[in-house]
């Protein structure tokens, strides 16, 4: 197996024969497959039981049994349908999300090339065993932990494990970790650990443990217990008072049970599920795949967003951003590895003379280069971007050379053929090439780390120039850039060796490159702060790089001297309060867990974004784990609640808005549903005190409940987001679902509905009208008026389902009064215009009261 040249001469990498096939099979049987044990698939029955254990569903199940007991089969059917709908949608969303993640995983499953019986064989990475000999080449994913035995210019991207955005040089005897990627060179390595024993497996083991309930699940569980206790107490009170008034036992039992069923907001699970499902659907349209429905609402509660750097805040691609030469400086602009972009000197397009030293430097960098650029191949996918083939930093130099108008790389290689080379390695920290020019001279080009190039043994320049270049390199490095020095010289004759070629050179300048922030990173973090969300950067990168990126995206001020806390600082216990820090660098997976745990202990609802294996444990521990789908690892995707298929952090902000919309709709329905249920109980309790012996029949109560909590209630779950949703802070984690004024509005509306309904019924009784039917229609109309009055925007064209359902409920209410069959079942009587006017007045009062209370509480907030 041949490899790239080392130290000026072409060399071949020899390799041991490797394991025999029989021995490999034996070890596979003994050690197991080389994979992190996948999570056991959850059977459908277990998913169904998990849905049915919801406290509100348990209350509904009880209400369903009561309706069957009193012979109210239509309402029992409605309750059953709500339970089936809730369970079906919840299970279907979980299964659909799991299938989508599995498809992403299948697309990224790696293979491996190993030596078996002395011959190279390609096989799935899951069949690699300890002792196997891996043959590594550019683009390969390392299949298992291994000890490197031979290497030729080997450069490995370890960002998925460490968060370090710059690839690492690997020499013989270095250790390689499973899942890392070879970006340049070749190597031979012996596998030392596979599966759960590998570094990837050890990190994955941190993901064990059950998921905790979301804030919404905890709030609804608490509400369900309170509702069950309060409703039971009130219905027992109603039953006892009726008996004391001498009403028949059977009548009071049926009415009390009907009242209990009516007071239960049985549409709540359907409203919650519909709101979450619609939120998940909208998020999918915005490139966010929800793996668990409750996660939709939790996003609206997020108060801290912990984000990694590489590929999340940054593009995940190296880009030349600044070039310094002894005579001029230039700034470069562009996206990724695209060979198109602008060059500016002092803010203006440069002239040909100003650009000449820049072009000379970048031409030398393009010649002393083994990378290439791959053009877009598949529009609409990841293939619609230019990609680096080889070392990302070398590819960035090629893109910069094209932006500066240098000759094409292919033309340069044809007109300046390479005759000698000394590849980059971790000891020399530089690379040199010799080329024959069209004039027949020998051109030597060299690039490398400033400390390895800015040396009088390499350069023939003046001492003061070298000193100034070193100061400039230190300044650029302090700003978070990766800095390379470039030198060249032209000789009349070919140097005797590369060692001779690397002397007497002329400094051309410095190149500053970095993994730049994404175009929308700064605006995304600004939107987070406007929504009251605290952004925190947690990366495995260098502290200077982390601070530079944090400053550029506005996470900290550019002149802010805020301390960047590093992993060693955390290990040494030098940080008392982790929640006071906004930028963490050089962190390991366990430290990410500590940071997330510290915020949660403070009461924050945390969201963690990431794409690497090292992010997996923190993704699992956070309230919401957000993984990158396109470039993310399998461990990250499996640990996450939300997978971003476009890898854009701005999608998280869209998801937060959806979460807040869902929570607002649930609270809106609770105010509406519980106000109506409370009013029905108050009407039944107070009615006899104002001369209405049995205000409503059991069937009438259930019919009102069906029309108000049925389509109308469910339609409220599809309401659009309020205009101010993303300009208010997240709700406090400990706030009750009926907090922030919701329970006050609920009680006020219940009192208003009670007073107006009883007023209409009393007036009808005084006027000799069918007072029970008037009361029935007034109570129903007041609740429908509230449904429209609670909307964020009354006349919006979004969610036309709500006004349509209100109209449908009104028509069904009329049917109850004027259809002979329903008249006999519900014991109602037809009304004249005066009775209808009383009911309409109740509806208008309900609408106006809801609007006024909404405005009053918004001003108070």
Describe this structure in words.
With 861 residues, the protein is α+β, with helices and mostly antiparallel strands. The protein is 48% helix and 16% strand. The chain contains 30 helices and 25 strands. The strands form four sheets. It has an eight-stranded mixed sheet with strand order 8-25-24-23-9-20-22-21, with helices on both faces. It has an eight-stranded antiparallel sheet with strand order 12-11-10-19-18-17-16-15, sandwiched between helices. A hairpin with an 8-residue loop joins strand 11 and strand 12.
Structure summary:
The chain folds into 4 domains: 21-39 and 112-207, Calcium-transporting ATPase, cytoplasmic transduction domain A, CATH 2.70.150.10; 211-287 and 654-860, Calcium-transporting ATPase, transmembrane domain (Up-down Bundle); 301-314 and 519-647, HAD superfamily/HAD-like (Rossmann fold); 319-513, Calcium-transporting ATPase, cytoplasmic domain N (3-Layer(aba) Sandwich). The protein contains 30 helices and 25 strands.
């Amino acid at each position: 197996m041949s490899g790239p040249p080392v130290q000026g001469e072409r060399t071949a990498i020899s390799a041991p024969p490797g394991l025999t096939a029989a021995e490999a099979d034996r070890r596979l049987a003994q050690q197991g497959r080389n994979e992190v044990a996948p999570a056991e698939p959850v059977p459908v029955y277990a998913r169904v039981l998990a849905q049915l254990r919801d406290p509100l569903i348990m209350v509904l199940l009880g209400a369903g049994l009561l309706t069957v007991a009193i012979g109210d089969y239509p309402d029992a059917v409605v309750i059953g349908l709500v339970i089936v709908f809730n369970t079906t949608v919840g299970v279907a969303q979980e299964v659909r999300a799991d299938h989508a993640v599995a498809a992403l995983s299948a697309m990224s499953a790696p293979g491996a090339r190993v030596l078996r019986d002395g011959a190279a064989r390609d096989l799935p990475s899951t069949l690699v065993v300890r002792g196997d000999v891996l043959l590594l080449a550019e683009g390969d994913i390392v299949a298992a932990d291994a000890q490197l035995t031979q290497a030729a210019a080997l450069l490995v991207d370890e960002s998925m494990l460490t968060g370090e955005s710059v690839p690492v040089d690997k020499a013989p005897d270095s250790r390689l970790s499973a899942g890392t990627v070879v970006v340049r060179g070749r190597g031979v390595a012996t596998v030392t650990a596979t599966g759960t024993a590998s570094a990837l497996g050890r990190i994955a083991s941190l993901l064990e443990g059950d998921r905790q309930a979301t804030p919404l699940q905890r709030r609804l569980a608490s509400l369900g217990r309170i509702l069950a206790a309060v409703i039971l107490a009130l219905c027992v009170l109603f039953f006892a008072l009726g008996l004391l008034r001498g009403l028949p036992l059977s009548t009071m039992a049926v009415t009390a049970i009907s009242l209990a069923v009516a007071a239960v907001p049985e549409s709540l699970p359907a409203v919650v599920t519909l709101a979450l499902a619609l939120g998940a659907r909208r998020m999918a349209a915005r490139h966010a795949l929800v793996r668990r429905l409750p996660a939709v609402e939790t996003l609206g509660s997020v108060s801290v967003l912990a984000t990694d750097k590489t590929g999340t805040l940054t593009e995940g691609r190296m880009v030349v951003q600044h070039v310094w030469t002894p005579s001029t400086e230039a700034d470069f602009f562009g996206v990724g590895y695209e060979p198109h972009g602008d060059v500016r000197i002092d803010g203006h397009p440069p002239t040909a003379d100003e650009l000449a030293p820049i072009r000379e430097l970048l031409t030398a960098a393009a010649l002393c280069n083994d990378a290439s650029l791959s053009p877009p191949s598949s529009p609409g996918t990841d293939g619609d971007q230019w990609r680096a083939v080889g070392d990302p930093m070398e590819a960035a130099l090629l893109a910069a050379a094209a932006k500066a108008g240098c000759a094409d790389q292919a033309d340069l290689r044809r007109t300046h053929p390479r005759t000698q080379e000394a590849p980059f390695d971790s000891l020399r920290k530089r690379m040199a090439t010799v080329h024959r020019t069209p004039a027949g001279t020998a051109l030597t080009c060299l690039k490398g780390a400033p400390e390895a190039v800015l040396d009088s043994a390499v350069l023939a320049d003046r001492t003061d120039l070298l000193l100034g270049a070193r100061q400039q390199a230190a300044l650029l490095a302090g700003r978070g850039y990766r800095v390379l020095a470039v030198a060249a010289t032209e000789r009349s004759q070919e140097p005797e060796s590369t060692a001779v070629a690397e002397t007497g050179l002329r400094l051309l300048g410095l190149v500053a490159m970095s993994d730049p922030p994404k175009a929308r990173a700064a605006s995304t973090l600004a939107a987070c702060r406007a929504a009251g969300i605290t952004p925190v950067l947690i990366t495995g990168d260098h502290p200077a790089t982390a601070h530079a990126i944090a400053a550029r995206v506005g996470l900290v001020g550019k002149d802010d001297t805020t301390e960047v806390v590093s992993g060693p600082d955390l290990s040494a216990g030098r940080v008392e309060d982790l929640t006071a820090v906004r930028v963490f660098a050089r962190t390991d997976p366990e430290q990410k867990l500590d940071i997330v745990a510290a915020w949660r202990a403070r009461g924050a609802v945390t969201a963690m974004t990431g794409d690497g294996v090292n992010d997996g444990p923190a993704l699992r521990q956070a309230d919401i784990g957000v993984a990158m789908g396109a470039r993310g690892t399998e461990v990250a995707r499996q640990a996450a609640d939300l997978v971003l298929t476009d890898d854009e952090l701005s999608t998280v902000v869209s998801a937060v808005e959806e979460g807040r919309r869902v929570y607002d709709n649930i609270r809106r329905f609770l105010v509406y549903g519980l106000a109506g249920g409370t009013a029905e109980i108050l009407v039944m309790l107070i009615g006899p005190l104002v001369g209405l012996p049995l205000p409503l029949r059991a069937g009438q109560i259930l019919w009102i409940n069906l029309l108000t909590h049925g389509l109308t209630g469910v339609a409220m779950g599809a309401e659009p987001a309020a205009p101010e949703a993303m300009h208010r802070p997240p709700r406090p984690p400990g706030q009750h679902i009926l907090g922030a004024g919701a329970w006050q509005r609920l009680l006020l509306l219940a009192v208003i509905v009670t007073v107006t309904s009883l007023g209409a019924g009393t007036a009808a009784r005084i006027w000799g009208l069918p007072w029970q039917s008037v009361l029935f229609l007034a109570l129903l109309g007041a609740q429908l008026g509230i449904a429209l009055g609670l909307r964020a925007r009354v006349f919006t064209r979004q969610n036309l389902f709500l006004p349509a359902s209100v109209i449908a409920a009104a028509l069904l209410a009329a049917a109850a009064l004027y259809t002979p069959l329903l008249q006999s079942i519900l014991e109602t009587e037809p009304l004249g215009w005066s009775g209808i006017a009383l009911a309409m007045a109740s509806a208008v009062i309900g609408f106006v009261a809801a609007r006024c209370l909404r405005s009053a509480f918004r001003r108070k907030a």
